[in-house]
Amino acid sequence: LVIESMGADWQLSTCCGTEETVFCCLFAGYFAINLALWKTALLKPMKLIAVFIHEMGHATACWWTGGKVEAIEVYNNEGGVTKYRGGSRCLIIPAGYVGGAFWGGVFVTLSGDRIASTVAASLFIVAMIVSLRFSPNKVLVMLTVGFTAVTALFIFLDWFVFSPLLQYVILYYGVFIGSFSVYDIYDDLITRTVEGSDAHACHQLIPCCLPRCVGVQFIIVALLFQGLGVWFALVWMTST
Fold this sequence. Notes:
The chain has helices spanning 18-37, 44-64, 89-92, 95-110, 114-131, 138-160, 166-190, 198-205, 211-239, and strands spanning 68-74, 80-85. By secondary structure, the protein is mainly α.
């Protein structure tokens, strides 16, 4: 899975062949489809998954900084909450938006290879199952059962029936999670200031950081992760 630094085409001088062209077209196509269907019920499950990734970002930062996660919940109104004790608040608070954007970029990158896509899908399934240990609400339980089954099915189909398939699924996950992160940041932190949001919490923790300023920083990071995800995926494909 590792691209040897000497063999990596970091400048994409040999791009783009058929595989890379399909990847770019799918990335643009997925983005366009999401945009067209954004306000429809069809994308509701994916929006809730993006919220789950956001909450897992908080939970992961809590674990890494020595805190204890007590509950992870996702609500049908596309909100969520991670209840925790201890840990470093200055790292836990931004880990939701930033973590969602990061994993969106990672999924886009890993979609460039079959084995890497399988690893990404497996990590996704493990994360959903792990969340069941932390007092999940009914919505999260239903999400976990549904997306675990669907993602596992795609893994099976890719390895035993038809390939490539899983790479396209993981790419869609990455594009959607990244797009949702950008939209969520723009809607919650830039166009308006929502009391109780992560940016508002950052402002309370560090008064000189105004919520909208925090939102602008978050959205730059989110866009950067998506751009890096595309670039790393293309480097991976052209180098292997």
